[in-house]
Amino acid sequence: MSKTSDPPVTAANIMATPYTPNAMFRVNPQTDTESLLANACESLASASVMLCDFAGMLEGPHRQTLLGIAQVVMLGELAVNQALEHVAGLPSP
């Protein structure tokens, strides 16, 4: 029985594969930008809370790693909030 190996995973192979999004999770293309940003902001805020809660259950390097990830999520939330303010025409603080 001959054993064939899969081609190596390279950037070229990944980029050559067409991406087809699953229709189940497709965002409605008619949704306005402000609503999308508000939803993204709420999702990031929820993720931040979950990460911090979970980090509270850990100790040592795993806790530090999770808190680092939470900080990256919070920075993303700040950026989305700023974009939302621009789209909504609100003055920056």
UniProtKB/TrEMBL annotation:
It holds the Pfam family DUF6124. It comes from the Bacteria. This is DUF3077 domain-containing protein.
